[in-house]
């Protein structure tokens, strides 16, 4: 990973606790699905998936969830807010489109995100559109409540690409949300009965990734056809 100076363009709160960060990095190259490290003055390096696609460079987008004022994420956002430029290291991760997956011509690419795992999956989805990928692609995004949805403008624009599909699944039912509810993996299984010839990218917490994989394997998904950054730092628990 290379040390790069990025200009801070904007910091915007896009729902109750997620910040959208816009950066400009003139010297960066990356593959859709990779991440960068924000380097704090303390020397701490904090990883975040790049939420924009390579063809959007030099613009970069990050989505940072700040759960409370004592969190490391809050420290990161405050650092970005108070500086016109920041130090980053990029790019890292092998859960990306240049890892050979497209050459295997999967029947169906499943892009599955929980919460702010949306960032990585958004980058993959946008890049596949830009590459004029001709295969079947389905984006599944799971959030806890309707209030957790963000990036509505991008979602509406992305839905216009008729060859691909976007599916938002809200875990908690409410009067405000008339779309799909329940567990994310249930939505995938309802839509795709046989997953044996599918490839999946899964982004979220460790428990979310392995819990989803456990359920989808029962429908035929092969672990060798599944990609996640979680695999690199949290080995799969033994069953």
UniProtKB/TrEMBL annotation:
Family annotation (CDD domains): flavin_oxioreductase (cd06189)
Short name of one Pfam family: NAD_binding_1
FAD-binding FR-type domain location: 1-98
Keywords from the named record: Luminescence, Oxidoreductase
Oxidoreductase is among the record's keywords: yes
Claim: Ion transport is one of the keywords in the record: no
InterPro entries according to UniProt: FAD-bd_FR_type, FNR_nucleotide-bd, MRET, OxRdtase_FAD/NAD-bd, Riboflavin_synthase-like_b-brl
Domain of life per record: Bacteria
Family to which the UniProt record says this protein belongs: Belongs to the Fre/LuxG FAD/NAD(P) flavoprotein oxidoreductase family.
Name under which the protein is recorded: NAD(P)H-flavin reductase
């Amino acid at each position: 990973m290379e040390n790069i100076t990025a200009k801070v363009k904007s910091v915007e709160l896009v729902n109750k606790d997620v910040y959208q960060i816009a950066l400009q990095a003139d010297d960066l190259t990356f593959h859709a699905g990779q991440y960068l490290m924000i380097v704090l003055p303390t020397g701490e390096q904090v990883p975040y998936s790049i939420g924009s696609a390579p063809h959007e460079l030099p613009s970069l987008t990050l989505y940072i969830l700040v759960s409370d004022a004592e969190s490391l994420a809050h420290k990161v956002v405050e650092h970005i807010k108070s500086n016109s430029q920041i130090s980053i290291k990029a790019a890292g991760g092998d859960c990306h489109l240049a890892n050979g997956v497209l050459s295997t011509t999967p029947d169906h690419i499943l892009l599955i995100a929980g919460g702010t795992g949306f960032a990585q999956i958004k980058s993959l989805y946008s890049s596949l559109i830009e590459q004029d990928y001709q295969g079947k692609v389905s984006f599944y995004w799971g959030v806890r409540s309707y209030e957790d949805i963000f990036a509505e403008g991008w979602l509406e624009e992305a839905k216009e690409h008729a060859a691909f599909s976007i599916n938002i699944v809200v875990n908690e039912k409410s009067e405000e949300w008339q779309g799909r509810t329940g567990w994310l993996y249930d939505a995938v299984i309802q839509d795709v009965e046989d997953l044996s010839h599918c490839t999946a990218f899964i982004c979220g917490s460790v428990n979310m990734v392995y819990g989803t994989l456990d359920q989808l394997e029962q429908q035929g998904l092969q672990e060798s056809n599944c990609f996640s950054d979680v695999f690199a730092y949290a080995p799969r628990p033994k069953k």
